[in-house]
């Protein structure tokens, strides 16, 4: 993940736009982006767009506090809104520090076309989860509403090529005029922001081996490899489970892989699979031999090793009566894509925030603060994450120690069935302290009094 300070109202900002921002479509942004972004990020984008100036300069900077007023939201909400806009690739943020202080430049990006949005595996998966299958199918159908509703295989493209219609001076093709060179340098095409992680631990060779005897067109799998690996990253679906999902997404008449059917099937079934999904990297086994870990700690680690992050959060929410929100899925998706923390560490973080601290949901800023603290501390597995929490609790009990994370200790903790260790609920002195003789005598007297009163 990109580490930077939280939203600073006293920092300056400028709003610019990419060269292709002229292709931005408000209807596409509302129909396809808004359900995933949420209301604050959606409003924030239009607040930024209203600040666009022709040929902006550094002297045009304004204080970011003006954005808080315009959006009518707090710092944490605006910070999370920016994170969502950046994650969706609709805003790219640049930073510099100069003589006038910190400056953020927010570059607005054009929307994808409906067809490109639907065909982007990660975006379409998030949209499907946000709006449901029926609304998603309606949008997918609308993306092709102007295309011919008929078999196009008999149509032959007879369009003229460029040089058939236009004559160009060959000399100018070889010796490009200087004015064109300058314009091309100014309008250099920038690389699009990637939404998908660069690598995956998914065992593709094993998947192909398991599918070898299945009636599936192998070229289809190669064409949709990115989609399959995105679903694996989001839900930790292992290779055998993926084989079953792929079989269920085959066209029975042609044996071709139906990508849309596959997306709908995963979205519909992931809650049912949550209790049996394996970790995103089941082959990695953590060696836990530290004497500071209790039996319940080790039991918790088994749970964190056997679930992917989304599935683990879903299991926690089912036990505590909640549900996984779209925002929480986005938080976990960012952590998984970043790749700096393994799934077991992310699961311990989820347990700490939801079960141990008793928070109702995962908040992006709070989760990022803990994740960055653990990265600095060199945490690389679930056991290390638990030990880091123990160290934090011990430091917090020492006089004069400043709390790094705000907690909600004033309300009763939630207890998760058997998997929740109790080391963070009592210190060592409280657990080992023996009752005095006077206290035991008072307790026996109360028992005798209660029996007489019955």
Automatic annotation (TrEMBL):
Listed Basic and acidic residues bias regions: 412-430
Ranges where the DnaB/C C-terminal domain occurs: 314-380
Domain Replicative helicase loading/DNA remodeling protein DnaB N-terminal winged helix as annotated: residue spans: 19-255
Region called Disordered, residue ranges: 396-454
Biased composition (Basic residues): 443-454
InterPro entries in the record: DnaB/C_C (IPR006343), WHD_DnaB (IPR058660)
Family annotation (Pfam families): DnaB_2 (PF07261), WHD_DnaB (PF25888)
Domain of life the protein comes from: Bacteria
Similarity field: Belongs to the DnaB/DnaD family.
Protein name: DnaD domain protein
Taxonomic source organism: Limosilactobacillus pontis
């Amino acid at each position: 993940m990109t580490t930077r300070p939280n939203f600073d109202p006293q920092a300056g900002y400028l709003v610019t736009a990419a060269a292709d921002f002229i292709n931005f479509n408000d209807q596409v942004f509302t129909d396809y982006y808004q359900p995933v972004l949420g209301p604050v990020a959606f409003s924030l984008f239009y607040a930024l767009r209203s600040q666009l100036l022709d040929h902006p300069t550094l002297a045009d900077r304004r204080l970011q506090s003006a954005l808080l007023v315009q959006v009518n939201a707090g710092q944490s909400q605006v910070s999370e809104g920016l994170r969502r806009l950046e994650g969706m690739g609709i805003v790219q943020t640049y930073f510099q520090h100069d003589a006038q202080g910190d400056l953020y430049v927010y570059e607005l990006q054009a929307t994808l076309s409906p067809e490109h949005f639907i065909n982007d595996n990660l975006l379409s998966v998030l949209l499907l989860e946000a709006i449901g299958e029926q609304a998603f199918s309606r949008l997918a159908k609308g993306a092709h509403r102007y295309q011919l509703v008929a078999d196009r295989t008999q149509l032959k493209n007879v369009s003229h090529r460029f040089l058939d219609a236009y004559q160009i001076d060959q000399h100018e093709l070889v010796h490009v005029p200087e004015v064109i060179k300058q314009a091309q340098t100014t309008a250099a095409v920038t690389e699009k922001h990637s939404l998908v992680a660069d690598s995956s631990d998914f065992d593709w060779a094993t998947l192909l081996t398991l599918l070898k005897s299945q009636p599936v067109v192998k070229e289809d799998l190669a064409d949709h490899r990115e989609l399959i690996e995105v679903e694996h990253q989001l839900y930790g679906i292992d290779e055998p489970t993926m084989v079953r999902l792929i079989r269920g997404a085959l066209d029975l008449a042609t044996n071709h892989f139906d990508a849309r059917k596959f997306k709908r099937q995963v979205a519909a079934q992931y809650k049912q699979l949550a209790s049996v999904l394996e970790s995103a990297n089941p082959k990695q086994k953590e060696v836990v031999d530290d004497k500071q870990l209790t039996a319940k700690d080790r039991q918790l680690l088994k749970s964190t090793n056997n679930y992917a992050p989304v599935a683990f959060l879903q299991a926690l929410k089912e036990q505590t009566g909640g549900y996984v929100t779209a925002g929480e899925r986005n938080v976990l998706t960012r952590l998984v894509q970043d790749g700096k923390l393994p799934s077991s560490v992310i699961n311990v973080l989820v347990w700490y925030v939801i079960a141990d601290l008793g928070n109702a949901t995962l908040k992006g800023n709070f989760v990022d603060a803990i994740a960055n603290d653990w990265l600095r501390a060199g945490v690389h597995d679930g056991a290390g994450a638990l030990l880091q929490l123990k160290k934090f609790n011990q430091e917090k009990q020492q006089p004069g120690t400043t709390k790094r994370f705000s907690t909600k200790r004033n309300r009763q903790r939630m207890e998760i069935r058997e998997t929740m260790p109790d080391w963070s609920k009592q210190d060592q002195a409280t657990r080992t302290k023996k009752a005095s003789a006077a206290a035991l005598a008072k307790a026996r007297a109360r028992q005798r009094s209660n029996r007489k009163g019955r």
